[in-house]
Amino acid sequence: LMERRVIYLYEMRHKLSRALPLDLQRLRCK
Fold first, then answer.
1. What is the pLDDT of residue 11?
2. Separation between Cα atoms, residue 11 and residue 22, nearest integer Å
3. What is d(CA 13, CA 5) in angstroms, rounded to the nearest whole number?
4. CA-to-CA distance for 26 and 30, rounded, in angstroms?
5. What pLDDT, on a 0 to 100 scale, did the predictor assign at position 1?
6. What is the C-alpha to C-alpha distance for residues 28 and 30, in angstroms, rounded to an integer?
7. pTM
8. How far apart, in Å, are the Cα atoms of 10 and each of 2, 15, 23, 24, 28?
9. pLDDT exceeding 90 applies to what percent of the chain?
10. Is the pLDDT of residue 5 over 70?
11. Separation CA 2–CA 17 (nearest Å)
12. Who's near 5: CB < 8 A, 6+ residues apart?
């Protein structure tokens, strides 16, 4: 169960790390 939680958190962080740069680019463009 702990391993699954770690993997889940890691995936969420990876998605956020990818989404944040896109949001920053959108704000800069505007």
1. 92
2. 17
3. 12
4. 6
5. 67
6. 5
7. 0.46
8. 12, 9, 20, 21, 27
9. 3
10. yes
11. 22
12. none
Domain range annotation of the chain? 1-30
Q: List, for residues 6-22, the tens digit of each pLDDT value.
A: 889 899 888 887 877 77
pLDDT of residue 30: 62
Using alpha carbons, list the distances in angstroms from residue 6 to 12, 17, 22, 26, 29: 10, 16, 25, 30, 35
The DSSP code sequence of 1-30 is -HHHHHHHHHHHHHHHHHHHHHHHHHHHH-
Return the residue matching tokens 């944040």: 20
Tell me which residue has tokens 């702990």. Answer: 2
